């Protein structure tokens, strides 16, 4: 397996770096193709390949910085088709270990790495407290024993409204909720109670407001944009994080929820 990984790494490097005379530059046009191919590999292999690519590029500081900037623009953006916080985190961790960047240049990678390390896939999701429109107080821990589709949303967000309606119109989601195998919890983490109460949350969505502001104030979750969804397993571990697409989330949910 290691020989296969090394070969893949070399091929990826050849695709990424175009050598012109004595000045190597990043072929940005091929980066998307390289990442899409890496993501087809098993997760462990993809992480190893990504780390080895950055390690090899450390001898080419200009290319190294260009790849880091490209990753910051694409791998870190949940709305980008190449979004992968795990591969991005691998790049950030390598950048923090290597001596290519100056201490000042490492400030943003360090902050981003800390943010992305929260609620990683396979880890236990941080508990969120919330209130319902009737004033009752609850926490996500009460939903243990079934899958939880956690929807972070903003009442003023048009895209959030569209996602909520797609959830409400999805017969599979309604069947899973009705069978007690899934709970759909929308969390508003802002401070405008009036706007929250004026916003419609169709069934089967549970309408929750993080009134304590713990999501934001305690940095419980890193939310680069909204709407974003998490899929939490019945044992409380994260299956998907920061996913804007209901279609992709449904594929994983149906696979994991199969009896």
Shape: elongated
Q: Unreliable stretches, pLDDT < 50, 5 or more residues?
A: none
Amino-to-carboxy terminus distance = 33 Å
The radius of gyration computed from the alpha-carbon positions, rounded to a whole number of angstroms, is 21 Å
The major sheet is characterized as: 5 strands, mixed
| Number of extended strands | 9
Output the number of helix runs. 11
Give me the CATH architecture of the largest domain, please: 3-Layer(aba) Sandwich
Order of helices and strands: HEEHHHHHEEEHHEHEHEEH
Q: Which CATH first-tier class of the largest domain would you pick?
A: Alpha Beta
**Which percent bin holds the helix content?**
40-55%
Mean pLDDT: 86
Strand content: 15-25%
- Tally of discrete structural domains: 2
Class computed from helices, strands and strand pairing: alpha/beta
- Report the oligomer: single chain
* Full CATH superfamily name of the largest domain: Glutaredoxin
Provide the spatial order of strands within the biggest beta sheet. Answer: 7-6-5-8-9
CATH fold-level label of the largest domain = Glutaredoxin
Kindly summarize this structure in a few lines:
This protein is α/β, with parallel strands linked by helices and 259 residues long.
Essential attributes:
11 helices; single chain; 5-stranded mixed sheet; two-stranded antiparallel ribbon; alpha/beta; Glutaredoxin; 259 residues
């Amino acid at each position: 397996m290691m020989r296969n990984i090394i070969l893949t790494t070399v091929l990826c490097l050849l695709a990424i770096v175009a050598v012109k005379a004595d000045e190597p530059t990043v072929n940005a046009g091929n980066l998307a193709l390289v990442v899409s191919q890496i993501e087809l590999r098993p997760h462990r292999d993809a992480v190893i390949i990504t780390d080895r690519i950055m390690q090899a590029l450390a001898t080419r500081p200009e290319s190294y910085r260009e790849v880091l900037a490209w990753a910051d623009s694409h791998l870190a953006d949940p709305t980008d088709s190449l979004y992968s916080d795990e591969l991005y985190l691998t790049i950030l961790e390598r950048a923090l270990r290597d001596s290519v960047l100056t201490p000042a240049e490492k400030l943003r990678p360090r902050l981003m790495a800390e943010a992305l390390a929260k609620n990683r896939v396979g880890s236990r999701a941080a508990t969120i407290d919330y209130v319902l429109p009737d004033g009752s107080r609850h926490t996500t821990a009460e939903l243990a024993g079934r899958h939880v589709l956690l929807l972070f949303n903003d009442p003023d967000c048009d895209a959030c409204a569209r996602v909520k309606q797609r959830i409400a119109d999805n017969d599979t989601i309604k069947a899973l909720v009705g069978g007690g195998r899934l709970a759909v919890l929308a969390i508003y983490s802002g401070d405008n109670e009036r706007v929250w109460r004026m916003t419609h949350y169709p069934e089967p969505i549970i309408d929750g407001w993080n009134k304590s502001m713990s999501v934001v104030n305690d940095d419980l979750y890193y939310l680069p944009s909204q709407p974003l969804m998490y899929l939490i397993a019945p044992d409380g571990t994260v299956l998907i994080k920061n996913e804007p697409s209901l279609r992709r989330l449904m594929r994983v949910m149906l696979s994991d929820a199969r009896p």
